[in-house]
Q: What sequence folds into this?
């Protein structure tokens, strides 16, 4: 067997080479650790950003509740509210929430796209957390589609998209079940509406009507909300008359629109 004899110079060169490899490995590890720390810090910023958005949403909900109480005359005794001023505050807060939510959504998308999941490989825990935050925001958006526009179909689509990625998301499961249950009007639910109710009270009782199913009849000073009962285009209707800047229910008809979409009669004051 031949023995390889290395000179002192060769041994020195190899030692330097090994040292360089070690330094490169350490440098790469340190760089990765620094990147992870930066990503963790950015994620914490996004978590706080979401808390700020939710706080703004809660403030908006409080203003809307106050408006509902004012319209129904159920404010604490002696307390008065300028409905016009309160409505303006609600509009401004609503616009702020929308802007904040859009900024957060874009920031979450950017964070995820900076380290996108690779099929067949485990997802980075930081990215997984960002996905969870994104799902929470999507759920809030789905709820907004319902509360602001009565758009149950669009909300259902959002919930289904979330569950396609995360089948065990309990909030999305619950939201989907509720949206599916509320999408079509039932006679039992419709019976909760009473004459004299304000529009806000009707929304609380049976849910909001889709914006596309709300009609105004200016000449009669009347408005109508139609609630689909099935995919056959039949619908129940709630009619409102405006008095003293407040819309109140004056007429109800569970069978206002037949299955073929024909309206039984025009509302009248």
A:
């Amino acid at each position: 067997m031949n023995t390889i004899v290395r000179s002192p110079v060769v041994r020195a060169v190899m030692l330097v080479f090994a040292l360089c490899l070690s330094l490169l490995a350490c440098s790469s590890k340190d760089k990765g650790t620094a990147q992870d720390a930066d990503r963790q810090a950015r994620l914490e910023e996004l978590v706080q950003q979401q808390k700020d958005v939710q706080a703004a949403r809660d403030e908006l909900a409080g203003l809307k509740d106050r408006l509902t109480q004012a319209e129904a005359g159920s404010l604490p005794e002696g307390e008065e509210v300028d409905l016009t001023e309160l409505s303006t505050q609600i509009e401004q807060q609503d616009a702020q929430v929308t802007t904040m939510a859009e900024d957060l959504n874009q920031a979450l998308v950017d964070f995820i796209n900076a380290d996108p999941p690779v099929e067949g490989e485990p997802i980075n825990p930081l990215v997984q957390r960002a996905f969870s935050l994104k799902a929470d925001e999507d759920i809030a958006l789905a709820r907004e589609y319902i509360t602001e526009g009565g758009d149950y179909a669009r909300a259902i689509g959002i919930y289904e998209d979330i569950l396609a990625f995360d089948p065990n998301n309990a909030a999305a499961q619950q939201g989907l079940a509720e949206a599916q249950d509320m999408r079509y009007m039932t006679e039992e639910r419709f019976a909760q509406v009473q004459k004299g109710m304000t529009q806000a009270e009707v929304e609380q009782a049976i849910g909001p009507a889709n914006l596309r199913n709300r009609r105004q009849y200016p000449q009669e000073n009347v408005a109508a909300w139609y609630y689909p009962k099935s995919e056959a285009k039949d619908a129940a209707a709630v009619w409102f008359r405006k008095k003293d800047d407040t819309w109140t229910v004056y007429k109800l008809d569970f069978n206002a629109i037949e299955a073929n979409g024909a309206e039984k009669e025009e509302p009248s004051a």
In short: The chain has two domains: 37-72+83-182, 187-257. The chain has a mean pLDDT of 86. The CA atoms of residues 234 and 259 lie 4 Å apart. The first strand starts at residue 214 and ends at 217.
